[in-house]
Amino acid sequence: MQVTVYNCRAFDEKDLFMEYAKELGIDLVLCADAPNQENIFLCKGSQCVDVITSKIDADLIQAFHDNGVEYITTRTIGYDHIDLTAARACGIKVGNAPYGPNGVADYTVMLILMSIRKMEAILRRTALQDYTLAGLNGRELKDLTVGVIGTGRIGATVIRSLSGFGCRILAYDLYEKEEVKQYAAYVPLSDIWKEADVITLHTPLTEDNFHLINQETIGQMKNGVVIINTARGALIDSDALIAAIEDGRIGAAGLDVVENEFGLYYYDHKADILKNKELALFRSFPNVTVSHHMAFYTRNYVETVVKDSLMSCKYYMEGKENPWEIK
Which one of 120, 232, 259, 278 is the catalytic residue? Predict the structure, then answer.
């Protein structure tokens, strides 16, 4: 059995892939780049391909199918980067690789603290050896209301972590969890817009919540609200967020993800002109912390998704019940 692995990072994934593949009896074809029409031939002879958050559109799906691929696994929890409709039309199955929630949850709490304590502005000033205090007065979490949208594994872990800070926590999800109610009060979204000093997003991207945060919903929020996004960039209308930052309605933001990040993140673009004006603007604001979609990135994550993605492929190729397959 053979698996073609795209986006394989030499510095942290390659050795693990080779180790686990040997244990599982899988032959590997490794490619450092994202799949495209130029390197698609590498998957010929593989029933399964293994990817990350590269855009897998209908054309790539068809090319995979034409080369005999039957199963695509992504080393991520989210799978909105894969055209599921096209995959199903071709008879290609898709799987994901959920990992522990603590890495993203920790990172979220870090971004909240950095945002309310104005750490981006502090670091910029310190880099210039400007050690003044004016304009750097922060807030304490115990005095704030935090709205958590999405209480799956990550959102629930964020809530449990935040409970130790003594802040008031509001939560929203289509499916309420009893264990979350120990720490947070479930409320309608409209209450989160009106009452939260900090809003953090932990929901998958769907057609229904595309641009969940937009001009209209921002208009319902508290003046000076802090927005945190470690989920998916398209949950936020970038233009609306930029306008609200510029006029002061948004007090700060912590963004690990942005719209149209495909093809930018995880590559060295030092000498390139980036085709993402919104990202450039976010990076220019002293009250916005931007990182490159890496809240997930811990040792535990790498080991988990490499092994589980290969296990998913093995289960598929052996016709076994596959807990990672997206139904």
Answer: 232
Instruction: Tell me how far apart the 2 most distant CA atoms of the chain are, in Å.
Output: 64
Q: Which residue has the tokens 């892939």?
A: 17
> Architecture of 102-290 per CATH?
3-Layer(aba) Sandwich (3.40)
Q: Is-same-fold flag (2-99+298-317; 102-290)? A: yes
CA distance 213 to 238: 9
What type of residue is 193? W
- How would you write the pLDDT of the chain (327 residues) with one tens digit per residue? 999 999 999 999 999 999 999 999 999 999 999 999 999 999 999 999 999 988 999 999 999 999 999 999 999 998 999 999 999 999 999 999 999 999 999 999 999 999 999 999 999 999 999 999 999 999 999 999 999 999 999 999 999 999 999 999 999 999 999 999 999 999 999 999 999 999 999 999 999 999 999 999 999 999 999 999 999 999 999 999 999 999 999 999 999 999 999 889 988 999 999 899 999 999 999 999 999 999 999 999 999 999 999 999 999 999 999 999 998
Whole-model pTM: value is: 0.92
- Active site includes 293? yes
Of 120, 259, 261, 278, which is the active-site residue? 261
Q: Is 261 a catalytic residue?
A: yes
Active site residue 249: no
| Domain spans of the chain, in order of start | 2-99+298-317, 102-290
The angle formed by the CA atoms of residues 116, 194 and 117, to the nearest 5 degrees, is 5
In one-letter notation, the amino acid at residue 314 is: K
Q: Domain 2-99+298-317: give its CATH code.
A: 3.40.50.720
